[in-house]
Amino acid sequence: MDKRKSYTAEFKAKVVLELLRKEKSASQIASEYEVYPNLLSRWKAEAIERMPELFDKRTSKTEKLKSEFVAN
Q: Is the Cβ–Cβ distance between 24 and 15 less than 8 Å?
């Protein structure tokens, strides 16, 4: 059985930014990056859903503290 392919956060962000620019269709982007189109729509939906967290200073500080605590 084949192992699932995993993608880095940087790769996902790059692809989602292309989707949001709407310069190419989702199927063109999927073909270009060799990713299934339904996976692109999930990444885009997640990015849009979590976008408010980027601008909430309280959330970002909390996440930073959590990551520091987990790292130690």
A: no
pLDDT in tens, 1-37: 678 889 999 999 999 999 999 999 999 999 999 999 9
Q: What angle do CA 52, 58, 47 make, to 5 degrees?
A: 25
pLDDT tens by residue, 53-71 = 888 777 656 666 667 677 6
Rounded-to-integer distance, Cα 5 and Cα 10, Å: 15
Helix axis angle for 37-55 and 57-71, nearest 10°, is: 110
Contacts of 26 (CB under 8 A, 6+ apart): 19, 37, 40, 41
